[in-house]
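Hey, quick one: can you model this chain's 3D structure?
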Amino acid sequence: MTGLGFGEIFGALLIGIMVDKFGSKKTVMLNLLLLKCSVITTLIVLNVDASIPLTVLMCFFWGTHDGCLTSHSSEMLGFQFETKMEPFSIFNLAKSLFVFAFSMI
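Sure thing. Here's the predicted structure for all 105 residues.
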Protein backbone atom coordinates (compact mmCIF):
# COMPACT_ATOMS: atom_id res chain seq x y z
CA MET A 1 0.00 0.00 0.00
CA THR A 2 3.02 2.27 0.33
CA GLY A 3 3.50 2.09 -3.43
CA LEU A 4 -0.14 3.05 -3.95
CA GLY A 5 0.17 6.06 -1.66
CA PHE A 6 3.38 7.30 -3.29
CA GLY A 7 1.80 6.72 -6.70
CA GLU A 8 -1.25 8.81 -5.76
CA ILE A 9 0.95 11.72 -4.70
CA PHE A 10 3.22 11.42 -7.73
CA GLY A 11 0.27 11.11 -10.11
CA ALA A 12 -1.51 14.19 -8.79
CA LEU A 13 1.65 16.27 -9.05
CA LEU A 14 2.48 14.91 -12.50
CA ILE A 15 -0.95 15.59 -13.95
CA GLY A 16 -0.91 19.17 -12.64
CA ILE A 17 2.40 19.87 -14.35
CA MET A 18 1.30 18.18 -17.58
CA VAL A 19 -2.02 20.08 -17.76
CA ASP A 20 -0.21 23.38 -17.23
CA LYS A 21 2.39 22.56 -19.87
CA PHE A 22 0.40 20.76 -22.60
CA GLY A 23 -3.28 21.38 -21.89
CA SER A 24 -6.10 19.15 -20.80
CA LYS A 25 -6.79 17.35 -24.08
CA LYS A 26 -3.22 16.14 -24.66
CA THR A 27 -2.91 15.03 -21.05
CA VAL A 28 -5.61 12.41 -21.61
CA MET A 29 -2.97 10.45 -23.56
CA LEU A 30 -0.83 10.38 -20.42
CA ASN A 31 -3.77 8.87 -18.52
CA LEU A 32 -4.15 6.20 -21.19
CA LEU A 33 -0.42 5.44 -21.07
CA LEU A 34 -0.55 5.07 -17.29
CA LEU A 35 -3.56 2.78 -17.60
CA LYS A 36 -1.64 0.63 -20.07
CA CYS A 37 1.36 0.44 -17.70
CA SER A 38 -0.94 -0.50 -14.81
CA VAL A 39 -2.65 -3.28 -16.75
CA ILE A 40 0.63 -4.68 -18.08
CA THR A 41 2.27 -4.81 -14.65
CA THR A 42 -0.86 -6.39 -13.17
CA LEU A 43 -0.88 -9.10 -15.84
CA ILE A 44 2.82 -9.75 -15.22
CA VAL A 45 2.24 -10.03 -11.46
CA LEU A 46 -0.66 -12.43 -12.03
CA ASN A 47 1.25 -14.70 -14.43
CA VAL A 48 4.66 -14.77 -12.72
CA ASP A 49 5.68 -15.66 -9.22
CA ALA A 50 5.20 -12.16 -7.87
CA SER A 51 8.02 -10.78 -5.84
CA ILE A 52 7.55 -7.93 -3.43
CA PRO A 53 9.32 -5.26 -5.57
CA LEU A 54 7.19 -6.16 -8.59
CA THR A 55 4.03 -5.95 -6.52
CA VAL A 56 5.06 -2.55 -5.13
CA LEU A 57 5.71 -1.37 -8.71
CA MET A 58 2.24 -2.56 -9.71
CA CYS A 59 0.67 -0.68 -6.79
CA PHE A 60 2.71 2.42 -7.68
CA PHE A 61 1.42 2.37 -11.27
CA TRP A 62 -2.18 1.92 -10.10
CA GLY A 63 -1.75 4.76 -7.60
CA THR A 64 -0.23 7.02 -10.24
CA HIS A 65 -3.07 6.29 -12.62
CA ASP A 66 -5.71 6.84 -9.93
CA GLY A 67 -4.10 10.10 -8.77
CA CYS A 68 -3.90 11.39 -12.34
CA LEU A 69 -7.45 10.36 -13.14
CA THR A 70 -8.91 11.86 -9.97
CA SER A 71 -7.06 15.16 -10.33
CA HIS A 72 -7.75 15.46 -14.04
CA SER A 73 -11.45 14.68 -13.79
CA SER A 74 -11.86 17.07 -10.84
CA GLU A 75 -10.13 19.76 -12.87
CA MET A 76 -12.42 19.19 -15.87
CA LEU A 77 -15.61 18.96 -13.81
CA GLY A 78 -14.76 22.18 -11.98
CA PHE A 79 -15.35 24.21 -15.13
CA GLN A 80 -18.58 22.49 -16.17
CA PHE A 81 -20.79 23.58 -13.28
CA GLU A 82 -21.50 26.87 -11.56
CA THR A 83 -21.51 25.58 -7.98
CA LYS A 84 -18.67 23.73 -6.31
CA MET A 85 -20.89 21.01 -4.86
CA GLU A 86 -22.32 19.54 -8.08
CA PRO A 87 -19.06 18.35 -9.71
CA PHE A 88 -17.86 16.78 -6.47
CA SER A 89 -21.19 14.99 -6.04
CA ILE A 90 -21.30 13.74 -9.63
CA PHE A 91 -17.71 12.49 -9.49
CA ASN A 92 -18.23 10.61 -6.23
CA LEU A 93 -21.54 9.15 -7.44
CA ALA A 94 -19.98 7.87 -10.67
CA LYS A 95 -16.95 6.48 -8.86
CA SER A 96 -19.12 4.72 -6.28
CA LEU A 97 -21.37 3.21 -8.95
CA PHE A 98 -18.40 1.88 -10.93
CA VAL A 99 -16.78 0.43 -7.79
CA PHE A 100 -20.04 -1.29 -6.94
CA ALA A 101 -20.48 -2.62 -10.50
CA PHE A 102 -16.93 -3.98 -10.71
CA SER A 103 -17.19 -5.48 -7.23
CA MET A 104 -20.28 -7.38 -8.35
CA ILE A 105 -18.50 -8.64 -11.46
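One thing worth noting: Residues 2-104 form one domain.
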